[in-house]
Fold these 2 entries.
Entry 1:
Amino acid sequence: MFFSRFRGSLQVTDVSERNFRVWITDIDVSMMNHAAMMTVMETGRIDFMVRTGFFKLATNNKWYVPSAAISVRFFRPLKMFQKATVKTRVFHIDGPWIYLEQVVIRNDRDIAACIVKSTVKKGKQHIDASVVLAALNATEVPSGGKDLVEVYEKEISLMAERTNTWKTTSDRL
């Protein structure tokens, strides 16, 4: 968060890029582990929030941003000391839901990709994304990827159905 404040501001429709290096604490045996990759993606989202002014706005309004669902796909590993970049952007907004897309890239090759479904809340109340966009003086609303959002929502729904069956059956892992 500290360094993001000095990196220049972004609009909600811009892409945040954050470079990183894989350190010894990030690896299992010889490659970056999934938990470390998720942490890097989280820092990408924080960078995006700080640079768009959302973090300051949220702090002033006592808002918080829980993630409702995260889906990650890992394509290839990163090894110790390798450099890579995490890119973050908002690709769709629908009511209270904000969908972010992230990709980790090294040498123009995809390492991992992530979709995050988030919302803005104050207490138990959802804050509609249009309120957030207006407060950020955003003139454009990211609305691409509707087909991907539909598939993603279906995945979330199927996963919820599956986990609900665990409560009544012996299908647990």
Entry 2:
Amino acid sequence: MSSAPARIPRILGRLARGAIWTLLFAVLAAGGAGLLGQAWHAPGSPARAELTYAGDAALDARLDVATQRLTEIEAEVEKLAAEARIALEEVANDDPTRLRESLQRGGQAATTIEAASRQLRDSLTGLAGEGETAILEFSNGTLVRRSAVLTAIDAASSLIGHWRQVAAHATEAANLNALFTRHDATVLEAAASGRQRNYNRAIGILDQALLTVADIQSVRVRLIAGSEGNVLDEWIERNSAYDAALRALYAALDKSGNTINAEVVSRRREERIAFERLPPDRRTIVVIIAEVARNGLTQAVVAIDAAQGRIEEALAEAT
């Protein structure tokens, strides 16, 4: 019993020493964790650039060449985008000269872009930096450059398809404008023959006008998807109705020997009704051309502008 008080100080001393050692271990553990965090850096991070230096140097050398070639391609892309906008503006012009020249320049630029993009893609066959181990072999900055270069090549490669849409729709729209002009001139020629009482000739000329309307209908089918009515459909319906009514009037006059009878009067009334439904002037044609352009040509021009933007953004990252 007398030894119990003597053991109390020794017990307290051991407890105190244990607390001190526990505190010391905690401090060392925290310090060790900090040192470990400072010492450990994943390959590919700036702090461990020496681990990816060799891979970065080799890959960057190829990316430098590709970036230079993409810069040259971008200059052609800028030309292509400008010609696409000119084509959109010129489709409703009665004089097709500017449109024809624009399509020729744009076609040359598109061909250059396609060939250069294909050659560049072929030159990068087997390009390093792909796969799960890429982050261990290359720095993040180099991998970002690689991705940007490939994105730009993809965008450039898509331009030939968009330009073909521009050229096709612009050509069709220009042809449509030419068909409108041909139709109106044909009907005026038929009317001149009718005033001279040469009804047989007038009827033959109106048959040609109706064939031109059929050609316009074919263009409408190619340019505008779906069967929903539009301004072009309205023009086709009204002009074909008038051509047929005028033809029927001339046939009645020819049959009657230019004598005004009941049939001639009836046909004349139908011709007047059809005439009143015709568009008042040439401005309607401009509206029709604009609507046709929106159904394909505008979308293709916007797609070219979007591809140009992707190339510029990718080049900004790549450089």
